[in-house]
Design brief:
With about 675 residues, the protein is of the alpha/beta class. It has helices spanning about 5-10, 50-60, 155-160, 175-185, 190-195, 245-255, 255-265, 320-325, 345-360, 445-450, 455-470, 475-485, 490-500, 545-555, 605-620, 650-665; strands spanning about 70-80, 100-110, 125-130, 135-140, 210, 215-220, 225-235, 275-280, 310-320, 340, 530-535, 560-565, 570, 575-580, 580-585, 595-600, 625-630, 645-650. Strands 1, 2, 3, 4, 5, 6, 7, 8, 9 and 10 form a ten-stranded antiparallel β-sheet that branches. Keywords: Heme, Hydrogen peroxide, Iron, Metal-binding, Oxidoreductase, Peroxidase.
């Protein structure tokens, strides 16, 4: 049990088997009826139990986050690979093997708490490290850049992307006029929009999603030397995505798809893993690139600034209570430890104010740090007192600095002994409302991203722009957006223009011809581990052919779930049985990474019809398919036996090996 878990243990309460009391500990004789003046009379004001119970219910919900409202979280630990002492004095990054408790919250950005999880959106990837020097929060996204360069424009961005105020539509979607009007008239958003229209905005799962710190931060070592740093989370399973039609259908079939995937993986012990990586630059290299390293709409191409993997995070425990932990956790990019500091990124500078201000409204005041999920594992002492929901009972008469009555304690700690001190950056400038000229190139890295995509990824982006702009009612806005992205690439803008009914832009040159292969999901890790395969079977399936395939899949880390006409067990020809997990009413091809047609008795032909529907849709989404025995008869024109990624055979180890390879490939884009 980690130190954070031990600390939280005192707050965990199991009510089962206990007497019902009020919040003051008073045992109650009745909880069915309010106190009345007669059986049919009015409720009396003196009914303190009713008032306490109802008042608590009335206030069970705290205001949801304006952004990142739809989130899910888990506990885990981070283990360091190698010392980063040459770059930072942060204690948890010094000794290889050091394990630090963490809490991670994943989220969508635009939707409300009740929205679906597979919408097209950026995703939050926020990590709280409970270090011995205090809490450190790495508050990132699954996209390495952002829409805007200065925090003063953040309210404008969110007002534009949220449901339009005159009719409060659409929910959790950017396919509407105000968002694209903002994009066309705030062209610094070009690079982020390219990511948002890519497959990165519809991840397969939280387990297969990268995370990025977005901003440029500083590492500062014991000698006071500074390095600029960017943070990355690299999922061990690789970076994989849904297709758009699939994502839309999942929103209806299972709006909890991503959280269910994370919860179930942890419950079965298949713990999600992510490697923490950093990109490092000396101060002398600050100006050697064709972009400004402080611009939050720019990334550092991995081919130019190598990524150094420094440790691994493992998520190994689900929350006990979503409200107390996931909903009340308070992240803040200003929660840092010695050795980690800030750059002059103007978006980061604004976030350092905004996050504390937000917590004051959401969590009822200035004591949000005392909630169990937010408490550091190390002691904390200061002269802050009182306020709503204060947990600490401070003893003594002194609550100010400097003082003599308490020996001037709590006292500050010199930097050389571990006290936090800001990096002393030399500044010689005038106070202005302005932006650096070096921030004004909005299209080169947007073009870099486009150039780095594989052909299927580029086609998906064309489809995404066409869908989103096809929902925009204003022809003027559609024209402005197409003209804007013609500056990124005519190969992108021209087919989009044709689809949405505006004039194609004049032929021109792309903003850049550079590429960064690391940006394409075609170059990610491919493994069958962590995938979910649906097995379609009927009574009297050929268990001698099928069961070895299922055993081999499970041994490779694949989650196998059986689909049949009814729940219970189905027996094979050899007498061995399979437990059925889903019926055709509760299963759908979009909920699985691949399908295996195992065959079985089908006197009425109903099983074949249902199986063929699932297989045909999976084939259309370019997913792997396997079939053996009579299951091969369920393949047809919508899922041909000789199609790419379709493995048809007699079962056994040969089929299993070929199917595992197909599952690892994830998609077979040549079907498109």
């Amino acid at each position: 049990m980690s130190e954070k878990d031990k600390q939280l243990e005192q707050y965990r309460v199991k009510d089962e088997g206990k007497a019902l009391t009020t919040n003051q500990g008073l045992k109650m004789a009745e909880d069915e009826f309010s106190l009345k003046a007669g059986e049919r009379g009015p409720t009396l004001m003196e009914d303190f139990h009713f008032r306490e119970k109802m008042t608590h219910f009335d206030h069970e919900r705290i205001p949801e986050r304006i952004v990142h409202a739809r989130g899910f979280a888990a506990h885990g630990e981070f283990e360091l690979y190698e010392s980063l002492a040459p770059y930072t004095k942060a204690g948890f990054l010094q000794d290889p093997g050091t394990k630090t408790p963490v809490f991670v919250r994943f989220s969508t950005v635009a939707g409300s708490r009740g929205s679906a999880e597979t919408v097209r959106d950026a995703r939050g990837f926020a990590t709280k490290f409970y270090t011995q020097e205090g809490n450190y929060d790495l508050v990132g996204n699954n996209i390495p850049v952002f829409f805007i360069q200065d925090a003063i424009k953040f309210p404008d961005l969110i007002h534009a992307v949220k449901p339009e105020p005159h009719n409060e539509m659409p929910q959790a979607a950017s396919a509407h006029d105000t968002f694209w009007d903002f994009v066309a008239n705030n062209q610094e958003s070009a690079h982020m929009v390219m990511w948002a229209m890519s497959d990165r905005a519809i991840p397969r799962s939280f387990r297969m999603m990268e995370g990025f710190g977005v901003h440029t931060f500083r590492f500062v070592n014991e000698e006071g030397r500074s390095h600029f740093v960017k943070f990355h989370w690299k999922p061990v399973l690789g970076v994989h995505s849904l297709v758009w039609d699939e994502a839309q259908k999942i929103s209806g079939k299972d709006p909890d798809f991503h959280r269910r995937d994370l919860w179930e993986a942890i419950e079965r012990g298949d713990y999600p893993e992510y490697e923490l990586a950093v990109q490092l630059l000396t101060e002398e290299d600050e100006f050697r690139f064709d972009f400004d390293i402080l611009d939050p709409t720019k990334l550092w191409p991995e081919e130019e600034v190598p990524v150094k993997r420094i440790g691994k995070m493992t998520l190994n425990r689900n929350v006990d209570n979503v409200f107390a932990e996931t909903e009340q956790v308070a992240f803040h990019p200003g929660h840092v430890v010695p050795g980690i500091d800030f750059s002059n990124d103007p978006l980061l500078q604004g976030r350092l104010f905004s996050y504390t201000d937000t917590q004051l409204s959401r969590l009822g005041g200035s004591n949000f740090h005392e909630l169990p999920i937010n408490r550091p594992v190390c002691p904390f002492h200061n002269n802050q007192r009182d306020g709503i929901a204060r947990h600490t009972i401070n003893r003594g008469q002194v609550s100010y600095h400097n003082n003599s009555l308490a020996g001037n304690t709590p006292s500050t700690t010199p930097e050389r002994e571990g006290g936090y001190s800001h990096y002393q950056e030399k500044i010689d400038a005038r106070k202005v409302r302005a932006r650096s000229e070096s921030f004004k190139d909005h299209f080169s890295q947007a073009a870099l991203f486009w150039n780095s995509m594989s052909e299927p990824e580029q086609q998906h982006m064309i489809d995404a722009f066409s869908f989103e702009l096809g929902k925009v009612m204003s022809s003027s806005v559609r024209e402005q957006v197409v003209a804007m992205f013609a500056q990124v690439s005519p190969e992108l803008a021209t087919p989009v223009a044709e689809r949405i009914g505006v004039d194609a832009p004049p032929a021109g040159q792309p903003a850049s011809t550079k590429q960064s292969p690391a940006l394409s999901q075609a170059n990610t890790t491919h493994s069958p581990h962590g995938r979910k395969v649906g097995v379609i079977a009927g009574p009297q399936f050929d268990d001698a052919a099928v069961l070895p395939v299922l055993d081999a899949l499970r041994a490779a880390g694949v989650q196998v779930e059986v689909i049949a006409e009814r729940l219970g067990e189905i027996a094979g020809t050899g007498g061995k049985a399979l437990e059925v997990d889903h019926t055709f009413l509760t299963a759908d091809s979009v909920l699985f990474d691949a399908l295996y047609a195992a065959g079985g008795e089908d006197e009425s032909g109903k099983l074949a019809r249902q199986a063929s529907m699932l297989l045909g849709e999976a084939y259309g989404h370019c997913k792997p398919i396997a079939a053996s025995s009579s299951g091969k008869d369920w393949l047809g024109p919508h899922a041909p036996a000789n199609g790419p990624g379709v493995v048809a055979g007699e079962g056994g180890e040969g089929l299993a090996d070929a199917f595992k390879e197909a599952v690892a490939a994830h998609r077979f884009w040549t079907r498109d």
